[in-house]
Specification:
six-stranded antiparallel sheet, 434 residues, 18 strands, Transferase(Phosphotransferase), domain 1, 31% helix, alpha+beta, Phosphorylase Kinase, domain 1, 3 domains, Alpha-Beta Plaits, five-stranded mixed sheet, disordered N terminus
Length: 434
Amino acid sequence: MATTAYGERLDADLSGIQAGPYFLEKILGRGGGGTVYQAVDASGVRYALKVLRPQAGSGAELLLRFSREIQTLRELQHPNIVRIVDSGTIANSWPFFAMELLDGCTLRDLLKRHQRLSVEECLEVLQPIVSALSAAHADGIVHRDLKASNVFVSGDPPVIKLIDFGVAKLIQPDEGALNLTTYGTQIGTIDSMSPEQIRCEPVDERTDVYALGVLMYQMLTGHLPYHGMTPEELMQAHLYEPPPRPSWVAPVSPAVDAVVLRCLQKRPTHRYESAMAVLRALLEAVDGNPGSVSASTGDPASLGLYVEAVELAEDEGDEDDGWIEDALLDALDNARNTLADLGFSVVLELGNSLVAMMPLPAPETMTADGLLRVLAPPEGPVGLRLVLHAATAQCEQGQLVGGALADLHAWVPRGASLPGVHVTDEARAWLPQA
């Protein structure tokens, strides 16, 4: 049975005891980070009081981090962030914080009833979440556990509030302060945990951007991008599996697909730089920009190139395959740079693959085999699979948002995993030497 660093049982029900000025009345819910109680003070005002689960061996360091970060959160006043009013410890063992008691339900409960939300409904939920995250990020706080159960819908008309900053992280701690929860500590919920969290690497705003991508996918489709797996399989999926497109299971446009997939990139540098940038991109994807997107059937054809980094051989004796993922991403980075030199523009990124395009006609010297030769990484554990296609394409601000080229299912062979090059009949008509 799990215990704290002080030997107390973590699963104990503390109802009926005093926590500073608060009397714990009953349990409202349990989670991986602790237990939430309904509590009341001497004046009769009720609060939600969360008692955190100390990590074994952390002791005084946990309490120091907790008190410092809660103080920052108490100063963070935002209409879409639950208001924290107090913090302390119970018997010098269990840290707690008291917050306003909300009446309503979580976004997770809402999705259970409605299955999924329309893109417009998703935007209505996303805007206050982004506003809250942006305020936290501006104060140097990363939430690190953004998920549907930490988004609360309260009141009439409904107000969206972001809750549970119990594992929040100061991006830049005060000079001289202990940096207690950065490198080497895995914190968050596996369902929406970013690759850098799984690897116990430093986090920043783009960690919450990844979780936003998971949340958007869940709202649009009704389920998580990676689900039905063991915890170990979930972590492997977040680390190595290309994120699925929402449009595979829901009526979502390629433009919205592109926003979600960019949020779910494995490397933080490949994601949006901020939560507000995500919101702007989604607004543009939903509303469109008639000045930059042509919907006419006479759109000119473009040469499309699908590039996928594939593992050449699996070394079953190496349990730490993080270096393989690095090799896959390095191969894509090198291909991206080479494509720019060749006149291609990268218009879509999909985990271990990307889509690039250039206007037709292509240079007379371009051949499929020649592309494979110049893009192929040095001899090693990774190769590239290329697919060339010619079709109409619609782009907005450098992102593929429509046209036949955006329908990857129609021209990228499914299930192939070997390196090489495939040329569709449409592309062959433009590349006689292919």
